[in-house]
Amino acid sequence: MLQSRLITRQGLLSIALLAAAFCAGAHDVSAQAPPRTPSDVVREFYKAMREHRFKDAWSLTIYKPAVEGLTAEEMEDLRSTFEEQAARIPEQVEITSEQIEGNAAKVFVKLPAAESTPQVTSQPVTLINSGGAWIVGDSANQAIVIKAGRRYFLDAVIDANQNAIEDLLKNLVGLEAIFALAHNGSFGNVKALVGAGFMSDDVVEPKSTGYSFHLTIANDGKSFVAGAEPVRYGHTGKLSFWMEQAGKIEKIDNGGKPLNPSK
Fold it and tell me: Are 213 and 228 contacting, i.e. CB atoms less than 8 angstroms apart?
């Protein structure tokens, strides 16, 4: 009775070999699971974006090299930008069809009616097959992202912030001219311009622009100078700006310090 319960060393070896064979077979089964279709990838991308799993989402696209090396702090710097993009994605994404031609594919997504598009529309999402897997994007932009690497999104935010501040300064000349016509030739400070409806608070809000903007009006109200510096140099911007009332703009990378050409 006792002997029948004993397992010999040979028996143990046989069991181990059977277990190994079973595990190998299970691995083969999982390895043979069908790859994700272009439609699967688009669904997963939208889902991850809606759930604010931004690294997971971008890893399904040509932008994977732009996020895989980012630090937690850098991801936090980009969070507001990613959240804005995620907010544009409808809660319900309906895929109507997909087209595959070689290593390129298009997935057609049905977009619900909105204020900007009162009718239901269908928009194609482009994908490419890279390394045997479908990813969102195209080959031309993939090459750009690979070249820029982890700086791609970081530099894109810096460029966007710098362009927005320069546009603000360019528009400021005209806004001040209109304001002066209604105020006996006197220019207005930021508070006065906002109060007159010429600009909104968020246009000069550091959290939204990434820049500290300042506008100085002369004591007689007949002249002004404006400037802006990045809130965090190298993160929200690199260039410092300065402009006098005639509209001549100076912009220099001086480490994030205020720029004052008159001194």
Answer: yes
Tell me the C-alpha to C-alpha distance, in Å, between residue 90 and each of 118, 136, 240.
14, 18, 38
Nearest to 28 by CA among 36, 38, 20: 20
Q: How does pLDDT run across 184-231, given as a tens digit for each residue?
A: 999 999 999 999 999 888 888 888 899 999 999 999 999 999 999 999
Q: Which residues of 124-146 are buried (b: 16+ CB within 10 A; e: fewer)?
A: ebebbeeeeebbbbeeeebeebe
Residue 209: name the closest of 221, 201, 217 by CA. Answer: 201
Q: How many CA atoms lie within 13 A of 84 on its CB side?
A: 6
Tell me how far apart the alpha carbons of residues 42 and 94 are, in angstroms, rounded to a whole number.
10
Model pLDDT for residues 1-36, shown as the tens digit of each residue: 434 433 343 443 343 333 333 344 444 444 556 789
DSSP state of 61: B
The residues pairing with 224 across neighbouring beta strands, listed in sequence order, are: 217
